[in-house]
Design goal:
Elements lengths: L2 H11 L6 H11 L2 H9 L7 H13 L3 E4 L7 H4 L7 E6 L9 E6 L5 H16 L3 E4 L5 H15 L3 E4 L13 H10 L1 E4 L11 H12 L2 E5 L6 H11 L3 E5 L9 H8 L3 E2 L3 H7 L52 E2 H8 L3 H13 L3 E4 L3 E4 L2
Helix pairs in contact: 1-3, 1-4, 2-3, 6-7, 6-12, 6-14, 7-8, 7-14, 9-10
């Protein structure tokens, strides 16, 4: 596609009053983008050419790829929507758009520690078994799912974040480190223009992209009016599998998944439940992961990593990983080498410590205790 053709598409979709449905109606009616643009000019005030040219230049400057519905890289599942976005902005590894299978993991922003652990564990195991995890990079379950995927495959796991802002904007701001890590290892996509700030109305619409890209949606903690249930309903309409992690009937955050299970969603306790449905169990084996309860309220000693030694016969689930981490920071690879944990248990515990606010990531693949 030439830059002129790209500019025509952007000029049409960025015109006020023209959304994805109207865009496709115009193109189908006239038979071409150029003719659709001429039709729009007779009815509306068209987005200035200079604006889209600046947009293209800004995308190039930030290594953002603008993928149009006519591009071979455009996901086939997404193209099936009647309101498929005419363009998607992609930052990172665009080859991930062609990966299969994909599973979306969504849920509450005010998630419990147990819920975040579950999302992280699911994402970690799915990624290690060849499944690409998709989420929305929001607080809570979304962030936990992305982190679990990134920790997988020896810390080189990939994940796709579908955001409700421009791909060059970080929202929420607390996810700056996560955003940067996804840019390195995975992919961030959006249908929204560069520089678009967070707006409430944009987030429900991005849910249709999450569900369309996926082969199934997993809901981990969500109230009955949650946006996560919107994603699940959209996925159901699109013929996708729905998975739900059950919870206590007395917990509001469990009401959404429990209701989905009542309606026929697949009760999900581990990644194996998802892999079975995806008919992958014959060729892939899920690693058994113990979900050990961390002593979150237990006082921790401030001991430098060099002062610690683990006896060979110490059970791995009893290892206090936090005691190996100093306030100054330690290298993650060195921490794994000396702590005595298996790689799987190590990264799960590291994720849990990060979720509970006890450690933070530092540059140079290091982690440190938070004072």
């Amino acid at each position: 596609m030439t830059e002129n053709e790209l500019a025509d598409i952007l000029q049409l979709i960025k015109t006020d009053g023209i959304g994805p449905v109207t865009f496709h109606e115009y193109v189908n009616k006239t038979g071409s983008i150029k003719d659709a643009l001429e039709l729009a000019k007779r009815k509306k005030v068209i987005c200035p050419r200079e604006t889209v040219e600046e947009e293209i230049a800004a995308a190039k400057a930030k290594n953002v790829r603008i993928i149009t519905y006519k591009d071979g890289l455009y996901p086939k599942n997404l193209a099936e929507l009647n309101d498929a976005p005419p363009v998607i902005y992609a930052l990172g590894n665009i080859d991930l758009l062609q990966q299969t299978p994909m599973i979306a993991i969504v849920g509450a922003r005010n998630a419990s520690i147990a819920g975040r652990k579950m999302a992280s564990h699911l994402a970690y195991d799915l990624t290690n078994n060849g499944v690409t995890v998709i989420s929305g990079m929001a607080r809570g379950i979304d962030g936990a799912a992305h982190k679990g995927a990134l920790y997988a495959n020896e810390q080189q796991g990939a994940t796709i974040a579908v955001v409700g802002t421009g791909v060059d904007e970080v929202y929420p701001k607390e996810n700056q480190d996560l955003y940067e890590q996804i840019c390195k290892q995975g992919l961030i996509i959006s249908e929204l223009s560069m520089g678009t700030q967070a707006q409430v109305s944009n987030f429900p619409r991005r849910n249709r992209i999450i569900s369309a890209l996926s082969d199934g949606v997993v809901v981990v903690e969500a109230s009955l009016n949650s946006g996560s249930l919107i994603t699940a309903r959209l996925a159901l309409e699109q013929g996708k599998e729905i998975f739900a992690v059950p919870g206590s009937p007395t917990e509001n955050r469990a009401a959404g998944p429990n209701q989905l299970i009542k309606e026929g969603a697949i009760l999900t306790e581990n990644a194996g439940d998802i892999l079975n449905v995806l008919s992958m169990q014959s060729t892939r084996r899920i690693k058994k992961v113990k979900i050990a309860e961390l002593p979150l309220d237990k006082p921790q000693n401030n001991v430098n990593i060099s002062e610690n030694k683990i006896l060979a016969d110490t059970p791995s689930q009893e290892v206090d990983l936090l005691s190996f981490i100093s306030y100054e920071g330690v290298d993650v690879d060195e921490l794994l080498r000396i702590c005595g944990l298996s790689q799987t248990e190590f990264f799960l515990q590291l994720t849990e410590l990060e979720f509970s606010g006890k450690i933070e990531r530092q540059v140079g693949n290091k982690v440190a205790k938070i004072k």
